[in-house]
Specification:
single chain, mainly alpha
C-alpha cells in the first residue's frame, strides 16, 4: 500500500475542517458571482438587443470570421517559422562542435527569456520606422517574427530534450557499426525524437494561437481586435468578448484533444524507445 510522503491522510477532524473551508469557498464564489451578474444585469448586458447582433451573418462575415482567419494566418506562419528555427537551433544544440553548441544555446535561451509582447512592440517599431513592410503588413510581420523567435526557441529545447530522452545505447550502437555522430543523430535519434515530441508540438500550437491575441496592442486585426471593434459598434462588450472567448476555447480544445490523441497513440504503438514528451513546454536546463 502506497503512503504519501508530503501529505498525511487527514483524520476525521481534518476532514470536517476541509469540508467547512470548501463550503465557505463555495459560498464566497456564489456571492461574487451574484454581485457580478447583478452588475451586468444593471447595465443590461443580458438584454436581447446586445446579444442579437452576435447571431447575424454580417457580424460573422465582417468581424469574427475575418478575425479568426487573421489569427489562424498569423499562427500558421509562426508555426512554419518556429519549426524551421527550432530544427536549426535544436540540432545546433546537439552539434559536436562546441562553438555551434554554445551559440545555439545562447540564441535559444535569449529569445526564451524575452516576453513575446516586448518582441512584438520592438519589431513593429523596427519595421515601421525603416519601412521594411507596407503599413498594413507591419503588424502581421511583427506578430509572426515575435512568435517565431519565442516558440522556435521552445521547439529547439523540445528537440534537444527529445534526443536526450532516448536510450544512450542507441547512439553507442550506431557508432559501433561505423556511423559518424552526425549520421547517428540524423538517421537514428532525430526521427524518434520528432515522433516523441509530436504531442508537445501540437500543444505548442495552442500557445501560439493564444499569443496572437497580443497583436491587438500593435493594431493587428486578430480575433480579439475584431471582437473589440464589434463591441464598439454595438456597445456590447460583454457579449462580444464571451463569443470571442468561446471561439478561442473551441479551437484550443480541438488542438489539445489532438495532442492528447497523438500522445496516446504514440505510447500505445511504441514507435519510439521512450514515452512521448509531455505536452507542457520543457523548462530550460543545463547542457549535458
Amino acid at each position: 500500500m502506497s503512503t504519501s510522503v508530503l501529505f498525511d491522510n487527514p483524520g476525521p477532524k481534518a476532514r470536517v475542517r476541509y469540508r467547512i473551508v470548501a463550503g465557505l469557498g463555495i459560498v464566497v464564489a456564489l456571492i461574487i458571482a451574484w454581485l457580478v451578474v447583478g452588475k451586468l444585469n444593471e447595465y443590461q448586458e443580458f438584454s436581447g438587443a446586445k446579444w442579437s447582433p452576435m447571431a447575424t451573418w454580417s457580424t460573422w462575415r465582417y468581424y469574427l470570421l475575418i478575425g479568426l482567419w487573421n489569427t489562424i494566418k498569423a499562427a500558421g506562419l509562426s508555426v512554419l517559422g518556429a519549426s524551421i528555427f527550432g530544427f536549426v537551433f535544436g540540432t545546433g544544440r546537439l552539434s559536436q562542435n562546441r562553438l555551434v553548441r554554445i551559440v545555439s544555446g545562447a540564441v535559444v535561451e535569449f529569445f526564451r527569456a524575452i516576453p513575446v509582447l516586448i518582441m512584438m512592440i520592438f519589431f513593429f517599431g523596427i519595421y515601421a520606422y525603416n519601412g521594411v513592410f507596407s503599413a498594413d503588413i507591419n503588424p502581421l510581420a511583427a506578430v509572426v517574427t515575435a512568435l517565431t523567435l519565442y516558440n522556435g526557441s521552445v521547439m529547439a529545447e523540445l528537440l534537444r530534450s527529445g534526443v536526450h530522452s532516448l536510450p544512450s545505447g542507441q547512439r553507442e550502437a550506431g557508432l559501433s557499426v561505423g556511423l559518424s555522430p552526425r549520421q547517428v543523430l540524423r538517421s537514428i535519434q532525430l526521427p524518434q525524437a520528432v515522433t516523441a515530441m509530436l504531442p508537445a508540438l501540437v500543444s505548442q500550437l495552442v500557445v501560439i494561437l493564444k499569443d496572437t491575441a497580443l497583436g491587438t496592442v500593435i493594431t493587428y486585426p486578430d480575433l480579439l481586435q475584431q471582437g473589440q471593434n464589434l463591441s464598439s459598434l454595438h456597445s456590447n462588450v460583454f457579449a462580444a468578448l464571451v463569443v470571442v472567448a468561446l471561439i478561442y476555447i473551441t479551437v484550443n480544445w480541438g488542438l489539445t484533444s489532438l495532442a492528447g490523441l497523438l500522445e496516446r497513440r504514440i505510447n500505445h504503438r511504441g514507435r519510439t524507445s521512450g514515452e512521448a514528451i509531455p505536452t507542457a513546454p520543457v523548462a530550460a536546463g543545463a547542457e549535458d
